[in-house]
Every structure is written in structure tokens, then in C-alpha cells.
Amino acid sequence: MLVYANSYLKCGIFGVSHFHKKDCHFSIRRTWSLTCLPFCVDALHLTRRNMSSQVMEKMGNSVVVKEDLQDFEVPYSYETAMEALSSLITRKKRGDKSFVGGTYGKLERMSEYLKILGLEEHIDGLKIIHVAGTKGKGSTCTFCEAVLRECGLQTGLFTSPHLIDVRERFRINGLDISEDKFLQYFWDCWNQLKEKVTENLPMPPLFQFLTVLAFKIFICEKVDVAIIEVGLGGTKDSTNVIEKPVVCGITSLGMDHTETLGNTLAHIASHKAGIFKPQIPAFTVPQLSEAMAVILQRAHELKVPLKVAPSLDNEQLNGLKLSLSGDHQFINAGLAVSLCKCWLQRTGNWEKLFQNDIQEANLPEAFLRGLSTAHISGRAQIVYDIDTCSQSYNSLKVSENPCGDLVFYLDGAHSPESMEACAKWFSSAVKGNMKSLSTSFKVECLEEVWGNGHIQHARKSMEPGKLLKQILLFNCMDVRDPQILLPRLVSTCASSGTHFAKALFVPSMSTYNKVTSGASVIPSDIFNRDLSWQFNLQRLWEKIIHGKEVDTLLDMGAKMDNAKILPPHEFLYEDASHCNPADNNFSCSAVMPSLPLTIKWLRDCVKENPSVRVQVLVTGSLHLVGDVLKLLKR
């Protein structure tokens, strides 16, 4: 088979050119380059399907078919795309400096990539909501998407990071982009950029590529609105190539990414306010005075009409509940409401939809539906592990029987402020506080059913008389400060009467320098990871619990050997009141050798003792949360 293309086709249908082996390093069967995969015609799903010559004939006279194309198949698998993405990672771990090379600055590079793909002139047409912040920007963007989708608009949502699969970053109308469409857009961008690589303009680093890909997807999918979450900071973030958003938002600010953004709140606020554009409306939430002063100054310089969005009042929900749990979500929801109202008004959609018959204090029904159904994984998420049920269930069906004595409470909190919010949510959730939960947890049991971007809920009566054990499953990156995170978690939980029976410290399964999918093979080296960081976390934990240093007599070698042996099941059920150090051994915690073994160990413990319900808070790292979700889904 041989295909020639001497011009690009309208709507980016299909063009093949340049049969050079060096153009494609990630093909499995054949080495050739796809310069433009289909992205405007739904019928052309070439990733796993054959393409007839009749389809080719309809594409125009510029294509000459030398053989019957009945056996044509794009030779790029999903895992191959993940390998290609991994090759764009320029840092081994967070905190390392990224070296890209070339003569262009970061945003100049972004502009060049957009020009190569022919996207630059189309970005303004996306009618973008651009959101920066330290805490809650993902939740705010998710609320915005759900609200505008309920208003009948075609929505695109770009967020980061992903937890299980990179496709989570790209939502179309509330759903993760399909694997077929992802591959079409991915390889189209990849090959066009690869073809134009020079010494002065190398391939984009990972996040820049994903940002360009998001613009590509949303433009080709013809969304009415694109909600774009800033990756890091604002001023120099890859998303800040956006020149004319409809409205901008800044969520709550705090101390995070200080190695990049600066070690004061003023420095951080300056970066976040860098997304403001001249005379484009912007909203923020109540901030500490140091941060607010910087935001106001930046708004003044650019003549930005800036307003502080009021927190949403529970009474405004007309008896409904926010779908995202935690009191802090009322702040995020309030910002989302202000952003959506402004967007609808500036684009002329408010009058079309509501004909000005909505009172200022009232929320339209579409807003209420969006706020009560928005979903984001890994933030205040509760998952019942159906593997511990006495019966076997199809993961796509809802069981009517009570089950699940191993419950995971997942929140990717990794800053002091978000850790405090996480602790309040967890304490409220395990105590069945009706005001903080989106479902009636005190009298009902929630089982989550995995779907593409949506979670369905099944309500089932909980069994009375269960002994509840709260367990912490924790890890954080070494650029975080656990001496702030862990005490904040413990003290906030304790103030609500919640105390952890045990703490388990475990290395994450994923690695910073590799992009994986939900189907990726678990790396074999996870059982031989360096656990020195986990031992540091354990030592800190025991000091917090006992108020003094513990286990100073044991050498690291002995501890490393012990960590390869899982604790006995009895360790989990020991009364927390008896958690005292003896013989200089840790008694309130354990370092676990790997996450898969930890999940299996917890399941075995629960199955062995059916009178106990184990409530596991997974926090400290979104990577850890994603790894746990990945394992539970399997």
C-alpha cells in the first residue's frame, strides 16, 4: 500500500506524507508519519478500524490510492502514545529544573507550536474561562463546566493533573475524551510538531504539549466554551498564551510550589494575577491581605474590572447539596457562579437562556443542577471497596446489598491549607455529619460505580454495631514539608474527635518521569523502592503521637529489612489507647513495602474480621490517590 498527499485537506481530514523512518519513533508495525489524523468527521475512526478506498475518494483529488486500503490500520496503540508522552518529560522529579533548549522563551514556544498546528487564530473563538489559584481551581473549573453544560452549552474542560489516565485532563460535555478521539488528535499534533522540530524549537515539554493538545481538541470539537485550569502559577504558565479570555478567576491562595513561585504570599499572588488581561473582567475570592493587595494592584494596572465573588449560601441551593464535599467548596462554588454569570452575560447567552426573569439573589435551575452534579475524582471522594464484599459484583452495575467494610476516603491535599480542609471533611464524613456530605452517609452506604467521567451512587443501609477504625494511608513528595502537613492533619482531626488508630506510610506506585494509563502494567521495581523517605515520615508521625522521639536505637538497615515484611493482621486492630512505644519500636504506624501489597493487606485484614469497618484516609499526594484509585478499579 502506498498513499501520497500533495496538499492538506479541508477540516484536517486526512493527509499522509513523508515516509521517513526517523519521523516516527513510536510506531509498532510501520514507520511512517501521519501529519493530520481525522478530527472533524466522526466516521473516520482509524485507530482500530479499517478504512475503505471509497472513503479516501471522498476526501478529494489530492489523494492517490495505489492499493486497496481495506487493511489500513493506524499503527499507534494507546500505550505507544503514553511512551511518546513520557519522552517529553524533562525533569526526573518535581523541584528539578527543566531544560528544554532552543532560543525561544516558554510562551514564545507555545505561540510557535500553535502556529505550526494552525490553531493560533482560533483560540479566541473558544470563549475561554481561565482560572488560576493555589487551592480549589480544579473544583471551581469543574463546577463551571457542569453549570454551563446544564445551560445547554457544548463544553470543554482542561484540568491537571490526571489521576489514572491522561484522558481525564480533556473533558468534552462532562466526559473524558474517548480513547479513539484522543489518539486521533494526539498523533496529529505529534507528527506535525515532530516534522517541524529544529535546534531552536525542540519538541514541547509534557505540559506544554498537553496544553496545545487541549486547544486542538476543543477547537476541532467546536465547543461553545472552554474552561482552562492553569497548570502552575499563571504569568509563565503554558496556558497563559490565551490573550482574550471572556473572564478570569483566581481561587484561594496559599503557600505551595514555593521553589518556583517564591516563598511569600505576595510573590505567589503576583504569579497568579499574571493571567489578568487588559479590561477583561476577573473574579477572586476573599484572600489574606498580603495576597489581595497584589491582586488589586495588578487589576488596577490593567484596568481589569475585579470583583470578589461571595461564597455560596446553603439556602441558595433550594434544598439540594453541592456534589463536592467540604465547607470550602461553598467558596469554590460561589466563584464558579460568578464566573458563569459573567460568561453568559458577556457572550449574550444570559438573555437568551433566562430572559432576565431571574432575580439577582436566585440561581437558575440549570445552575443548581450543575452545582449538585459536578464531579472531580480524588477530591473528597469516598469509595467502597467491593472486593471486601461477601458477594461478587459487576463493576458496571449497582449492588442492592450492603457491603464494603473497607472504605477509602480520598483527597489529594498536599498544602497546609488543603490538608486542614481535608481533615475537616474526613472527620465530618466518618461521623456522618449530614451538612458536609453530598449523600446521607450516617444512615446510608455509598458504593461508587466506575464510569467515563461520571460516578453513579447506590444507597444502602449500613449495618449497625460495626467497630470503626480510622487508618491513615499517607505519602507526600519530598519537596513538601511533612512537619507542617502531618501536625495540621492530626490536630484538625483531633479537634473534631477523630483519632487515627494506625498510620501506614507507603511509596507511590507511579513515577514522576513516566506517563501511564489505567491499563498500564504495574512496574516490577515498585517492590524494591527506597523507603528512607517513608521512614522519615514514620519517625515524624510517632513523634507527633507520643510527643517525643521514638526508635532512635534501631539502625536503618534493620528497619529496611523489617519493612519488607508486612505487619500481622492483629496490628490493625490494636486499640489506639494501647499505642505506646515499647522497646524503642514504632507502635502506631508501619512502613509498607508497596502500595499493591498494602491494598491486599487491608483487604485481608477486613475479610478476617467482619465485625470491623476500616475507614482509610488516603492523602498527601494526588499521585498516591491516583494509584489507589487505579488499584481499586482493577
Automatic annotation (TrEMBL):
Pathway: Cofactor biosynthesis; tetrahydrofolylpolyglutamate biosynthesis. Its cofactor is a monovalent cation. Keywords: ATP-binding, Ligase, Magnesium, Metal-binding, Nucleotide-binding, One-carbon metabolism. It is an enzyme of class 6 (ligase). GO terms for molecular function: ATP binding; metal ion binding; tetrahydrofolylpolyglutamate synthase activity. It comes from the Eukaryota. GO terms for cellular component: cytosol; mitochondrion. InterPro entries: Folylpolyglutamate_synth, Folylpolyglutamate_synth_CS, Mur-like_cat_sf, Mur_ligase_C_dom_sf. It catalyses: (6S)-5,6,7,8-tetrahydrofolyl-(gamma-L-Glu)(n) + L-glutamate + ATP = (6S)-5,6,7,8-tetrahydrofolyl-(gamma-L-Glu)(n+1) + ADP + phosphate + H(+). Its EC number is 6.3.2.17. One of its GO terms (biological process) is one-carbon metabolic process. Belongs to the folylpolyglutamate synthase family. This is Folylpolyglutamate synthase.
